[in-house]
TrEMBL record:
Keyword Signal: yes
GO function terms (MF aspect): RNA binding
PANTHER family membership: FAST LEU-RICH DOMAIN-CONTAINING (PTHR21228), LD45607P (PTHR21228:SF40)
Keywords: Signal
Secretion signal, residue range per the UniProt entry: 1-18
Record protein name field: HEAT repeat-containing protein 1
A biological process from GO: chloroplast rRNA processing
Length: 789
């Protein structure tokens, strides 16, 4: 054997000299020596020349019939990364041999064979070799050591094979778990990545893997951090929070060393984990990316991943978004590199952040959408238009560019994978949200067609307004019903009366199937349609809906609402002058609870794009971006804005705006109906005495006028009135002192007369009832009244 080694050592430099010498020397080697020679050729210091690679593949293919199964496995793992003519033919022959001889291979040979086929890039995942190797490996899984096990799992995961119940990765989970204590950091990361890529959920495996990964954090390389963070964020589990808590400081410290792909992946993983340290990590990433040239290192897909991470946790960083705008303006090639899916996720991320500008951030995306034209599928066109409409960037040219494609898709029978009824509801909402002056002439035709298509089966199922409900399997979902009603209430489309009647009938007959927010949105839309178009929603149907709303407020799903939803409920009751005492008692009690809750930073647990309804490309996209969360964002746009924290610690400015809107509406409604709720009034005074920082920008002059005048009408504006309600003098003094110190309470010549009169009404009642109040407070009230008179 020694002379053979010396012979190969002498042959090696001659083989590098030319193709003819290489072929001659390869022909002289025995079959078992060919794999070793091929390895040395493929892994030399210099890349293998195409001619030499082609000759190598030719010789291997000719000698393949005489090789034993282990020699076939060794050959397969020797040259998978060599690029030369004849590669596809060689690996097709290797795959055929391995499919026939898989049962005779040892675990190490099975792993090398699978790895070679996967790395070659020329063997399709559906080749017969992979099931044969999988079956043989599963039968010998207890004999696999750590190295071949990691190699095998990684090979099948590379092609997304071995997933599903009873698949290879599920079968090997106990063995992988048993070997975890012996794995190096890189091997641990590869195992985690294999299960993440194939979406095989093994709770016990990942529970122990997260614990092991937590201990190895100081030893992890950037790629290992990326793979582990992505996998553990995907599967979660009880041990995941401890892992991310330990990983956060390491990521922040390693930011300058992270490659762009690892930075994007880790950022997305923290956002997906919803860990308490995710905002801090994302703020650190934002500061890092503001450095010179840092954004330029990101590819288009990596940039989309980063934007999606900030959208997922609703964290707006103006500095980062401004940098992205400048980057896109200076690098149009980045936007041109975005495919339909990346463009969709970029636009939807900005929409979820509530971004309305700068124009440099949105205009390139809209221009790219127009340029893609026919490459956009109907679903992608719908959701891209939806996202751009939400950020007010759906102009006439974009609507016109997409209109023809959507009309064509609407005219065809819906096939497998085509737009569903839910998708068309979203499309209608997007067109309705666009500027009507900018909409092309054909928009009304498209919108009328969408309404007719969406409600066609609904008409047949539900019959006339007073009829019973049918049972079609393809009927409108409650979410779609609420969205379509809201769209028609906000933007009337001609000849939609039958559609509205069937939708309202669906709301009455199937209200139990609606979510809390969906029920409120549909109710508000029905009331709005009743007030504007009485023929569509007659009084009888509207009263039925309000009775259902009142019942749910008293003892149903609407007893624990947030400020935005409570405002919708109060609006519907107030506009229809619905005076059921128990329903209004529920409204005032819920407002009292909301005012007493502390304001905290909101991290929204948004769904992943793979779970989102109707998002094209979500199941197969590698971008990791996420889709629109229709249940929260589409039904309640204010909720989206309220969940965005604009890099300002725990201040939730938009959430406070919702609370102030709800407060103004509920108090003024109670004042009109003379419904005095002592608990609510006491809570209002205490809230005004120590208003959160965010309230100063929301309590403007008009709202202060409504609030003070309503308190006056309820007989609760004076000090003596407040004392009768159980409010101590200190709280009353603090409320008026704080209220009059707000920027919105300052006298202004430009204040509308109606707002001024309301504010003066409240002040006059406060002055009139200030006799028991301290002299300093009486002087303050009188001074404010004089200034506004």
């Amino acid at each position: 054997m020694l002379w053979r080694q010396r012979g190969m050592a002498a042959w090696w430099p001659r083989c590098r000299m030319g193709m003819t010498a290489c072929a001659a020397e390869l022909e002289r080697l025995a079959a078992h020596e060919l794999p070793s020679a091929a390895v040395r050729l493929a892994r030399g210091r210099r890349p293998l020349e195409p001619e030499t690679g082609a000759e190598l593949f030719s010789v291997l293919r000719e000698r393949l019939p005489g090789m034993s199964p282990p020699e076939v496995a060794a050959t397969c793992s020797a040259v998978p990364k060599v690029a030369a003519p004849g590669k596809r033919e060689l690996f097709a022959a290797l795959a055929a041999r391995l499919a026939a001889d898989a049962d005779s291979l040892r675990p190490e040979e099975l792993a090398r064979s699978a790895s070679g086929l996967a790395l070659s890039g020329v063997v399709p995942p559906g080749d017969a070799a992979f099931p044969a190797l999988s079956t043989a490996a599963a039968a010998r899984r207890r004999a696999f050591g750590a190295d071949p096990l990691v190699q095998l799992l990684n090979a099948f995961a590379r092609l997304r094979l071995g997933a599903g119940e009873g698949g290879l990765l599920e079968a090997f989970a106990p063995e992988a778990q048993a070997w975890l204590p012996e794995l190096y950091p890189r091997e641990l990361a590869l195992v985690a990545n294999a299960y993440a890529r194939t979406a095989v959920v093994c709770g016990d495996l990942f529970g122990e893997l997260s614990v092991r990964a937590r201990r190895l954090i100081p030893e992890l390389e950037p790629q290992d951090m990326s793979n582990l963070a992505n996998a553990i964020a995907k599967f979660g589990g009880p041990s995941a929070p401890a892992f991310f808590a330990g990983l956060a400081p390491r990521v922040v410290a390693e930011l300058p060393r992270l490659m762009p792909q690892h930075l994007a992946c880790v950022t997305w993983a923290f956002a997906r984990s919803h860990h308490g340290k995710a905002p801090a990590v994302l703020r650190a990433v934002s500061r890092h990316l503001r450095g010179p040239g840092d954004l330029a290192r990101l590819s288009a897909q990596e940039l989309v991943n980063v934007l999606s991470a900030y959208a997922r946790v609703r964290l707006g960083c103006p500095g980062l978004l401004g940098g992205v705008a400048d980057h896109l303006a200076g690098r149009p090639d980045v936007v041109r590199a975005m495919g339909p899916v990346d463009l969709l996720y970029a636009a939807s991320s900005l929409a979820r952040l509530g971004v309305r500008g700068p124009a440099g951030l949105l205009a390139p995306l809209a221009a790219r959408a127009k340029a893609l034209g026919g490459r956009l599928g109907p679903k992608q066109a719908i959701y891209l238009l939806h996202a751009l409409a939400r950020v007010r960037h759906a102009d006439a040219s974009l609507l016109g560019a997409l209109e023809g494609r959507l009309l064509g898709a609407l005219g065809r029978a819906r096939g497998e994978g085509g737009p569903s009824r839910s998708d068309w509801v979203v499309a209608l909402g997007a067109y309705a949200a666009a500027d009507p002056d900018a909409a092309p002439a054909g928009t009304s035709r498209l919108c009328k067609g969408i309404v007719e298509w969406c409600c066609r089966e609904t008409h047949q199922d539900l019959g006339p307004l007073e009829g019973g409900r049918g049972g079609s399997a393809d009927e409108m979902s409650p979410l779609d019903t609420a969205l379509l009603l809201r769209t028609l209430a906000n933007t009337w489309i001609e000849e939609s009366e039958p559609a509205v009647q069937s939708l309202v009938n669906r709301l009455v007959s199937d209200h139990a199937g609606f979510s809390a927010t969906g029920l409120l949105v549909a109710t508000q839309a029905a009331v709005q349609l009743h007030l504007s178009r009485h023929d569509c929603v007659p009084s009888r149907a509207c009263n039925q809906i309000l009775d259902l709303l009142a019942d749910e407020l008293v003892s149903g799903r609407l007893t624990d609402l947030d400020a935005g939803d409570l405002r919708m409920a109060a609006w519907a009751l107030a506009r229809m002058e619905h005076v059921r005492a128990d329903s209004w008692a529920s409204v005032t009690a819920q407002l009292t609870r909301i005012m007493c809750e502390p304001s905290t930073e909101v991290l929204d647990a948004a769904v992943d794009c793979a779970d989102g309804p109707g998002i094209p490309g979500a199941a197969t996209s590698e971008s990791g971006a996420e889709s629109l969360t229709r249940e929260t964002d589409d039904l309640h746009p204010q909720a989206r804005a309220a969940r965005v924290s604009w890099d300002a610690g725990s201040i939730d400015v938009a959430g406070m705006e919702q609370l102030v809107q709800c407060l103004s509406l509920v108090v003024s409604s109670c004042a009109r109906m003379l419904l005095q709720d002592k608990g609510m009034i006491v809570s209002i005074y205490r809230w005004l005495g120590d208003p959160p920082q965010q309230a100063s920008g929301s309590l403007d002059y008009a709202r202060l006028g409504i609030l003070t005048a309503s308190l006056a009408k309820l007989g609760a504006a004076g000090c003596s009135d407040a004392a009768l309600l159980g409010l101590d003098g200190g709280a009353f003094r603090g409320a008026w002192t704080g209220l009059l110190g707000l920027p919105g309470a300052q006298a202004s010549d430009s204040a509308p007369l109606g707002d001024l009169s309301l504010f003066l009404l409240g002040l006059s009642h406060a002055v009139a009832g200030s006799a028991p109040a301290p002299a300093a407070l009486r002087a303050l009230l009188c001074s404010a009244a004089s200034a506004h008179a």
